[in-house]
Amino acid sequence: MEYKAWFQCINNCDEKYELNEIVYRCRKCDNLLEVRHDIDKLKTSSPDEWKKRFEDRYRKSEWPYGSGVWGKKEIVCPNIDNKNIVSLYEGGTNLFWAERYGNEIGLEDLWIKQCGDSHSGSFKDLGMTVLVSMVKQMISEGKQIPAVACASTGDTSAALSAYCAAAGIPAIVFLPKDKVSNAQLIQPISNGALTLSIDTDFDGCMEIVRDICKNDNIYLANSMNSLRIEGQKTLGVEIVQQCDWEVPDVIVIPGGNLGNVSALGNGFIMMKELGIIDKFPKIVCAQSANANPLYRSYLSGFKEREPIQAKKTIASAIQIGNPVSINKAIKVLELFDGIVEQATEDEIANASAKADNTGLFCCPHTGVAMVALSKLVDKKIIKSSDKVVVISTAHGLKFSDFKIRYHEDKIEGVTPKYRNLPVELEPKYESVKSAIFQRLDKL
Question: In DSSP terms, which residues pair with 35 in a beta bridge?
């Protein structure tokens, strides 16, 4: 059966566009676009048939359906020919039962969706495979696209550069100077992307890349391009699939540019439309207190939606004061009984270290989500019996410099409660034995 998807204005005006058009905003009212699907045609398969189809493909070797994204191609982007799909076997990441951490904060059923266990080390791969595949499709159809570009706080640039390198398409990344980790900076450099270090913040980079893409036909890869959201919405579908098609009670997700919040919700909305699920989880969006425009809006009942000047935060990937997808995210939060919570720098650093002590290796953005989770458990908004999934957005190895500075007590405004440094010793048995038992006696 031939399925169909298209761009449509989120303002519900009558504007529609083909997915192979180079368009990011409604040409009629300037609102963002979203991808819409022919739901009636999708409904010709029963919920059980969709579940079986997704299960039969999951992590298998038949191209391209073993991918966690392309195994759900019909509800993501059916318009792309399989020969033009650029996949690095994204998705299928570990849903980790955080039993010990859950017990420590008063939860019986806590799970961590480890999106960092992906090719470029973050959830951004889920959306980038769709966007770069569509670019390859458009090029095959004769469209002149000289390069693909993005503004980034690190993870988007890593994903874009990896997928473009695999496809043989030039990539350009705009990074705020001295505001991404070395591990994130080296990724686009290694993949051959033109890496521009701009002396501004993310919002400044975003402004420049929009102008470049608007005036020079370079394709924009930021999350205002809703093709990215289509790939990222499989995160929600995959979580439910890994939970044996049961919906968790609560999902906690860090928020910066807020595309991932709307993507998460979209996955659940589509599953409900297809009859795969019959309820929604509560969605909690967690922000750094230094970059919290959505949290401020939440306090006003979402009546006020003003950008802010984001301050420096150790959760650098969400250091965004003017999120492009704030309206989309608010729409999802209102539908999903959503909550927005914030975390201070000290809380973020110590929550990350506490989680690491239970076998995780958290990026600071996951630390933001852990803080929000703990606060809501303490307030009894999240019950001890709730099944909770925390979205871990990136691999902790991307932020090893943050972890080193934490344990060396070199982060301003942070008192490291879980500091753990190597013990330097002479090569003598008694010295080593003494050090071992001094530590064991404290446990």
Answer: 7
Q: Is the pLDDT of residue 12 over 80?
A: no
For residue 395, the cross-strand partners are: 362
Q: Copy the structure tokens of residue 279.
A: 């309820």
- Which of these, 261, 347, 265, 342, lies nearest to 308 by C-alpha position? 342
User: Looking at this protein, which amino acid is placed at residue 326?
Assistant: I
Strand partners for 250: 282, 388
Among the ranges 13-17, 22-26, 362-366, which has the highest mean pLDDT value?
A: 362-366
| Helix pair angle (155-167, 182-190), 10° resolution | 20
Burial class (CB in 10 A: 0-12, 13-18, 19+), 186: middle
* pTM of the entire predicted model: 0.94
Q: Pull the structure tokens for residue 264.
A: 């998460």
Q: In the chain, what are the domain boundaries?
A: 95-120+230-407
Which amino acid is located at 73 in the chain?
K
Copy the structure tokens of residue 443.
């446990």
**What type of residue is 108?**
E
Instruction: Match 């990441």 to its residue by tokens.
Output: 93
What are the structure tokens assigned to 40, written together?
A: 């009636």
316 three-class SS:
helix
Angle subtended by helix axes 155-167 and 124-140, to nearest 10: 40
Reduce the DSSP state of residue 7 to 3 states and report it.
strand
Q: Reply yes or no on whether the pLDDT at 361 is more than 80.
A: yes
Do the beta carbons of residue 228 and residue 131 sit within 8 Å? yes
Give the class (CATH, top level) of 95-120+230-407.
Answer: alpha beta
* CA-closest candidate to residue 160, choices 237, 225, 82: 225
Tell the residue number behind the tokens 């991918």, with chain if given. 67
For residue 51, report the phi and psi dihedrals to the nearest 5 degrees.
Answer: -60, -45
Find tokens 């495979």 and name the residue: 129
